[in-house]
Amino acid sequence: MRLVILGAGESGIGTAILGKKKGYDVFVSDFGKIKGNYKEVLIINEIAWEEEKHTKDLILNADVVMKSPGIPDKSPIVKKLLAKGIPVLSEIEFAAPFTDATIIGITGSNGKTTTTMLTYHLLKSAGLNVGLGGNIGKSFAWQVADNKYDSYVLELSSFQLDGILKFKPHIAIITNISPDHLDRYDYKYENYIASKFRITMNQTEEDYLIYDANDEAITEWFKTHTTKAKLIPFSLTKTFSEGAYIKNNKMEISINQEEFTMDTEHIALEGKHNMKNAMAATSVAKLMQIRKSTIRESLSNFQGVEHRLEKVLKIQNVQYINDSKATNVNASFFALDSMNTPTVWIVGGVDKGNDYNELMSLVREKVKAIICLGVDNKKIIDAFGNVVDMMVEVDNMNDAVRMAQRLTEKGDTVLLSPACASFDLFENYEDRGNQFKQAVKNL
């Protein structure tokens, strides 16, 4: 069996290792340059590879192809493979049959990383033998090749779900759905929503789907579709006999005739959106039979995720917050919503078809100045130019942070929450967040 892998990033290299171990004839092809450390792994494992090209004759003879989530279906080589009827899978689809571990799959436009990390923290703190993978950390396929975990917590992007056929998690979570990556879905929101719901398409009556019962896109989907999975909703406003909700500042969860309650003030994560993430993760912990005392302790000591509403420093009584992971409007909505002081907002980058209107009331209420940090800031200026007193354009992080310091008074907050991708000025959102943190430390 010939396994061809397109893209030699974390998921590609992991799949190559697993494929080789399972007796496939493996070939790795990357249209860009392969990083040195990954190249070494390929050479040590005697796996054939090429870089800066896709040689058709070496690819179109595949029995099965795993493509990196970053490569769109519209790319010429993928089109040729699909035209020949060669299956093109995601890493998740390829690796899942080689493990009998319990899989918890988490997707959503926002909150999925926090929910994934918190779920992993809850299970690991309880002493479970659990792996963390998917869109985060070490490749799932690589872990399946090298480790013997009893459970996996996987963060799944819509691109990874697009490449599944039979994959099914025992427990699935959809944190929420809001417009994102529409450039990859022909600018049709319904295509993106359908992509997220692929997480439950193979689930059976034995499986569970945990979801936000207040989310408009999710609620609409349920009006015309069904899943066989047992439904566990969570909500900030509704109550359920089976599900999770917040009532009188208490998180209450009822699953399989078992109750769990905890005062929200003892939960380490702050903000309404994080209460939702906590309800989703705790629902998994309940399904996995984790003791109540362990759940309470884990929820109260969880550190949060880097680059997601991360408090950096307080300088002259001004709080600097790094929310570089907010790469879409909905994520910035949650960030602005959680601000309790006058805010200088650093925003901008590569726009993925953003509609800034939904932020208008929050900007009016909370934002005193906007610093545009992007190559093209026209949409942001058009949207908010008349709404805030001060609007400044900069093209590097040091200028953004110095300007923010000038515009603040005691008691204010400086929030980096870009609502955009980072590729115009930075390598990725981590690089953007790290540059922000360094610039703040240099003040």
Automatic annotation (TrEMBL):
Give GO BP annotations, semicolon-separated: cell division; cell wall organization; peptidoglycan biosynthetic process; regulation of cell shape
Q: Which Pfam families match?
A: Mur_ligase_C, Mur_ligase_M, MurD_N
Under Enzyme Commission nomenclature, its number is: 6.3.2.9
Residues forming the Mur ligase central domain are: 106-284
Q: Which domain of life is it from?
A: Bacteria
Q: What class of enzyme is it?
A: ligase
Q: Where does ATP bind?
A: 108-114
Q: Which reaction does it catalyse?
A: UDP-N-acetyl-alpha-D-muramoyl-L-alanine + D-glutamate + ATP = UDP-N-acetyl-alpha-D-muramoyl-L-alanyl-D-glutamate + ADP + phosphate + H(+)
This protein's pathway reads: Cell wall biogenesis; peptidoglycan biosynthesis
Q: Where is the Mur ligase C-terminal domain?
A: 307-420
Cellular localization per UniProt: Cytoplasm
Annotated protein name in UniProt: UDP-N-acetylmuramoylalanine--D-glutamate ligase
Q: Which gene encodes it?
A: murD
